[in-house]
Structure prediction request, 281 residues.
Amino acid sequence: MREIHVSQIIDKVKQMVMDAEYNLPEDFVSALETAKNFEESPIGREIIETILENASVASTERVAYCQDTGYPVFFVEIGQDVHITGGNIKDAINEAVRQATKEGYLRASLAFDPVFERKNTGDNTPALIYFDFVPGDRIKIKFAAKGGGSENQSKQVMLRPADGLEGVKKFVLKTIANAGPNACPPFTVGVGIGGTFDYSAVLAKKALFRPIGHRHPDPKIAMLEEELLQLANQLGVGPLGFGGTTTAVDVKIEVAPVHIASLPVAVNIQCHANRHSEIEI
Prediction:
């Protein structure tokens, strides 16, 4: 049994959160560099160049890439041979977010009461944390900062099984088109198919962590990812909605078994402030 003290988790998660807010992932930056060379719209190319310049400034100056520093979302895999000491991991992650928000000069974006007072929690907590238990003696923590603009354009639908593949494609593309400039493209698009009403949305969010260009291991799903990416970039939305051929840099799909009477599909849009990172302890 391997022991990990909560102080180690706090220190590493705090640094991870700040680094993610300052630095866009390398795979996303590389995808934008490639897109810039193929974007047919002059305005679109200029916007992509500006996005890349902003990313460079944020990284160099260690300031938040976007003023909306997002809702902190974590996927945590805990090895069954790990013993956490000094407290519990949920409190440790929230403390890390609290410290990162203050020390990293990040905007507090969470309101405790969603309907009435909407009072700000003041420190971006509580984070949304999904736990999974796996073999081994390590803890893997994935973090994403989900901005309100792109999250607001995400959708979920309970299709009929008879809607089939065409129904899935129609819903995904309609969601991307309707997101338009409101979700700050170029997008990364996560799609969850199957499971239940709620789990399809979790799958869609989880899909966003897969590196850009890394296809699903199932060849049929991989082909669907490629097809949806091509079709998305034919919608004409373009960078920041000004038109062009770069509406999305990738579409990633995760699937799960489903009830025979259901076909849940969720689309989680990620804006060009594609902030995520992961660590292993």
Summary: The chain has eight helices and ten strands. The helical segments are 6-22, 26-38, 42-61, 89-103, 148-151, 164-179, 197-207, 219-232. Residues 151 and 269 are 6 Å apart (CA to CA).
